[in-house]
Amino acid sequence: MSLGPLPLAAVPFAHGIGGAKDLPVSPELAIAGAVAALVVSFTVLAVAWREPRYDAATSGRPAPGRLTRIVDSAAWAVLWRVVGMLLLAYTAMTAVLGKDLVTNPLFGIFYVWWWVGLVPASLLFGPVWKAISPVRTIHLAIARVSRSDPERGMYDYPEKLGHWPAAVGLFAFVWMELVYPHAVELGPVRLWCAVYLAVMIVGGALFGSRFFEYADPFEVYSSLVGRLSVWGRRDGLLVLRSPLANLDTVPVRRGLVAVVAVLFGSTAFDSFKDSVPWVTRVQDSRWPAFLLDNLGLLGFCLVVGLVFSLGCVLTGVGDDLRHRELPNLFAHSVVPIIVGYIFAHYLTYLVEVGQQTLIEASDPFGTGSNWFGTADLGVNYWLSYHPTFLASLKVLCVVLGHVVGVIAAHDRAVRILPRRHQLTGQLPLLLAMVAFTVGGLYLLFAA
């Protein structure tokens, strides 16, 4: 239901799991069951999975020839570039010409379709942001006009930077969403988008298109999630792989742990900031709420990164593998956990606010128009009306994500660890996974 033409600053753009009322199941039972599933999974893997099963050089079977020809065609690439530019044009129009009201679809596009919707889209189709990215299209157009190679820039991208710029960009987004007090006012969102576009275009000019692969926060985000799809590439050929085999192909780069820590830590903080303990602490504190929220967001991201890194560096290794290399080598195993927790945390938000955004998209200027024929639709609240099903689905998402993460970590461990450490060496990382499971489910119920 539309909130009407109210000043946007007066209306909270609430989101998240909707609080404990969504979860009419026993939290103790859910947490105990999740930990048991994790431990049992690890035990079964230790007995039955003693050799690595995934190899990026051989895994996957070629996709059907007709499909490959379509996906690899220039027309297909141009089609999705056009889609991306049309989405950019529409979003820019609502940002510049739209009213500063809660009914402006810009906010749903920015916080729901772009941020949350990117996850299911990438799971289904692979790295969709790379295909539709307007900044890649703009960069390509600039290169064509200047008759330069879009792959090459003025400088080589520094390997030591890795994904650190993407981690910073992701943190800037979640800070905007979760901490900044004016996050649902038109001006700040408009400015954020403008800065993002400017940084990406300048980065592409300096370092070529490789910059987007390493530093574009949304391309890195989408590409990581897309590794859990069935679509992959082997020597440039489109192949069908199991999601676990595809996940094993995540490139090991510096800053990868920082990326997953921001994605997981920010989602966890989003749950915790609505919980009774945090709200009470903020209300009773002499410190400003804005400062506490900043410290809380940063603290959650740091704790996730430190717990995971500690679990990795305590893993037994041989003389040919340094402890400090392990966190980035195992960071891919956190991606299923992130995906599971994002679905658990944002599911109702994506479905219900996503529908509301579609309705409002037909009337971008609040004039009563119906551009796309969706203005008269209603929001389906079926999920909210079935709390037991919703609770079970959310717990299942969290547990399944952690189990898949344990499998991914185990396969990597039996490949890189010496045989005498392949079981006991994984125990610190398993403890870190258990901590994430307990913490994630606790926050899911505490919000």
Automatic annotation (TrEMBL):
KW Nucleus (keyword) present: no
Parts of the chain that traverse the membrane: 29-49, 70-90, 110-129, 161-183, 189-208, 251-269, 295-317, 329-348, 389-409, 429-446
Superkingdom of origin organism: Bacteria
Keywords, ordered alphabetically: Membrane, Transmembrane, Transmembrane helix
The name this protein goes by in its record: Fenitrothion hydrolase
Organismal lineage: Bacteria, Bacillati, Actinomycetota, Actinomycetes, Propionibacteriales
